[in-house]
Amino acid sequence: MRRTSLSLGLAALVAVIWTLLPIYWILKTAFIAPVDAVAFPAPLWPSNPHFAAVHNIFGFGYTDADGREFLPAGQSKQVINGLKNSVIVAFFVTIITLLIIVPLSYAFARFEFRGKTALLMAILFSVAVPPVSTLIPFYILFVKLGLTGTALGLIIINLTITVPFVTWMLIGYFRNLPAVEPLARVDGFSRLSTLIFIVIPMARSGIAVAAIVSFLFAWNEFVFATQLVNGTPAATLPTAVSGFLFLQPQPGLLSASLWISIIPAALVAFFLQRHIAEMNLVEPVK
Amino acid sequence: MSGIEITNLRKSFGNVKAIEEMTLTIPNGVFCVILGPSGCGKSTMLNCVAGLEDVTSGTIKIGGRDVTNLPPHARDIAMVFQSSLLYPHLTALQNVRMSLKNSDTGAVEAKRRIDHAVGILEIASVLDKKPGAMSGGQRQRVAMAKAIVRNPTAFLMDEPLAALDAALRQSLRPELAALQRQLGTTTIFVTHDQVEAMTLGDLIVVMNDGRVEQIGTPDEIYNNPATKFVAAFIGSPPMNFFEGQVEDLNNGPALRTQYGPIAIPRHLFDRMGGRAHSLGVRPQHIDINRTKTDGSIPGTVFAIENLGKESVIILHDTAGHDYRVLVGPDHGYSVGESTYMCPDLSQAHLF
To answer: How far apart are the first and last CA of chain B?
Structure first.
């Protein structure tokens, strides 16, 4: 028993270092002076915290303790605009995904109807198709429809990924919930009110996880955004941040913009993580 | 006022007949148990009464009112589901309240009924708990409270005790019976457990394969089984059957078996005549001996189940049929011994 927990602890430690160290490395770079950022060996810890980058990235100038002046970053407009666009896209993708998938996966989980298996296979197939393979057809379509360079176009294309993926995930979750529908019928609920007043509250953990997955996907989505909105006013944060890669190295600003892209996603995951645990660990009462 | 009247009820799923034809009148206040093996149509029948399934044909009256085409909540019933199903995300109190949410019961009346039910079932301490945090017995009580607050004309219960462990089932059975007597509400209770049926029911309906095999009191069902199915299904250990051909021989009617004729009392023969081909005898009505006597049937001891105050001896005949015989604790038999069975024919049944 003791040995198991020791090796488990070691494995967890390795996993945590493996995932978090690179992120930590980038994030600490936002708080060190440009001189330190290129020093060798690099400092493990921002022992001399320096806040120029986090000011500059938002378009503010900064004068440090030594009196050196740091000008607002040239990219600050794009970053702030990207942040705004990402929030809009991720928010609407999440909301629309939920509106579609909750009734859809509930119907798949609970009702028998003609063509159900074929439809399920179609959903599974659309999850299996690599998104890149649909990129060019979508691009041509969007050019003709005038949807390139718009948040609307990006929302639509994000939905084509999130809806099938999350539907597939939620069907299993709904199937595992106790069949309270007859109970609800005896209590006088119609089918629709059963879904709204009984099933959705009962399934809130699964729905919350579906929301996290959709939000994070839309928030992080890069490939479609690069093709459809990069360089336009609808550019999202990942494409704006990627702009740094093609400029002269500014590790501090790059790191600061990564902070901006990580924080909202981390907050969403943090506040809904209880539901991830609940969805996976707690066996629903049958 | 009448309780529940079911007339010529039929229910099919596509080509599959779940209930072939059922007519059943349950007088007001009676505890009626529907007993049968799984898949016999008993739950389907209950769902038809509840309105969860549409009937294919026939009528259902509850409290004298034709409810055949009414939705469940308009039928003035309350239902307790398999394993005392509750809403898992709601507390006990919220679960109970759900019963009245869509009714026109006023707030004051609702509170009075809930307080009453909570008092009767002694669930005040679990009102804030969710089903997952309750024991099986507590869930059962909350499910009952949820049913009681509706103040229904009929309770419908679909194997509510099935998922509980044996000890708990045994302690909840008399409580459930007492509660039903106290409330005097007509009840249909579906189960596959004959002990539940015998101990709870004023009236037992034995079903098999979508058909009603027999309707009667527990005594009638046990002592005068109408069909071989009922005879075999009720009683533990189950009834023994000696197979053969019934004939009226010179020295009186007898069952011709491969071991020779077994004489049959005249009154049994007169009821069934030559159509019968098995003789049913309960395990407590067979004697076993080491010596052959007239009309005895040979059997080898295959196993002995010691129940403490008595033992069940399981015998095999040469054809490999099982026979169970109840004997006292000091029977002295051992596995592999050859014995002879003497059925008490005054307690036998012909099928």
So the answer is: 38
Residue B347, both tokens: 């307690």
Q: What is the pLDDT of residues B157-205, one digit of tens each?
A: 999 888 788 888 888 899 899 999 999 999 999 999 999 999 999 999 9
CB contact under 8 A, A198 and B87: yes
Query: A38-46 — which CB contacts under 8 Å span 24+ positions?
Result: A38/A251
Contact A180 B85 (CB under 8 A): yes
Task: Kindly state whether residues A12 and A138 are assigned to the same domain.
Answer: no
Instruction: Write out pLDDT tens, residues A95-133.
Output: 999 999 999 999 999 999 999 999 999 998 988 888 888
User: Chain B partners of A202 at a C-beta cutoff of 8 Å?
Assistant: 87-89
A226 phi and psi angles, rounded to 5 deg: -60, -45
Residue A81 shares a structural domain with residue A99: yes
Domain shared by A244 and A173, yes or no = yes
The per-residue pLDDT for range A17-65, each reduced to its tens digit, is 999 998 888 888 888 887 777 778 878 888 778 888 888 888 888 888 7
Give the number of C-alpha atoms closer than 13 A to the C-alpha of residue A6, restricted to the C-beta side: 3
- Which ipTM was obtained for this model? 0.82
Owning domain of residue A8: 2-70
Beta bridge partners of B78: B155
Reduced to 3 states (helix: H, G, I; strand: E, B; else coil), residue B305 is strand
Cβ–Cβ gap A285/B131 under 8 Å: yes
Contact between B30 and B185 under an 8 Å Cβ cutoff? The reply is no
Q: A38 and A147 share a domain?
A: no
Residues 6+ apart with CB under 8 A from A13: none
> How many domains does chain A fold into?
2
Contacts of B71 in chain A (CB under 8 A): 185, 188
Nearest CA among B59, B161, B175, B181 for reference residue B123: B175
Assess whether A119 and A58 both reside in one domain. Answer: no
Which residues is A243 bridged to in the sheet?
Answer: none
- Asked if A188 and B73 come within 8 Å (Cβ–Cβ), the reply is yes
Final residue before a domain boundary, out of A49, A70, A91: A70
B residues 116-145 lying closer than 8 A (beta carbon) to A? 130-132
Q: Which of A32, A54, A70 is the last residue of a domain?
A: A70
Instruction: Pick the residue from chain A with its C-alpha nearest to B156.
Output: A186
Query: Are A162 and A258 in a shared domain?
Result: yes
Q: What residues in A contact B50, CB-CB < 8 Å?
A: 182, 186
Predicted structure pTM score: 0.80
Provide, as residue numbers in chain B, all residues whose Cβ is less than 8 Å from the Cβ of A286: 83
The answer to whether residues B177 and B208 touch, using CB atoms and an 8 Å cutoff, is no
Q: Give the distance from residue A209's alpha carbon to the nearest chain B alpha carbon, in angstroms.
A: 17
Whether the link from the prior residue into A41 is cis, omega within 30° of 0, is yes
Q: Is A286 domain-assigned? A: no
